Amino acid sequence: QVQLVESGGGLVQPGGSLRLSCAASGSIFSINAMGWYRQAPGKERELVARIISGGSPNYADSVKGRFTISRDNAKNTVYLQMNSLKPEDTAVYYCNGNVVTRAGGLRTYWGQGTQVTVSS
Length: 120
What we know:
By secondary structure, the chain is mostly beta strands. 0% of the residues lie in helices and 60% in strands. The protein has no helices and 11 strands. The chain has strands at residues 2-7, 10-12, 18-26, 28-39, 46-52, 58-59, 67-72, 77-82, 91-101, 106-110, 114-118. The strands form 2 sheets. Strands 2, 4, 5, 6, 9, 10 and 11 form a 7-stranded mixed beta sheet that branches. The model has no long low-confidence stretch (mean pLDDT 96).
């Protein structure tokens, strides 16, 4: 099995910064892609940013220029640096990984979510 564990959520003031981390562990052979999604109250879950091995990162228009996604492949960890935070960024943020397991399977895994609150 594979587990994704997020950390770094919290409460910040508008204009502030926060850095989220997500560490993948378990029977991992390789990770094709990792990303961050978020879900605000009463809204659908939406893509925030994702990065594919061998490719460039992609961002939602609402966060482009403010958020940066990065990976540490040696640690199977993905980060989301969030700057210039707005109240509209308030949501539960979920880590996502597309993983090739040591058994040869390709599966998608989700973290438990971490709350990000930007006060107004």
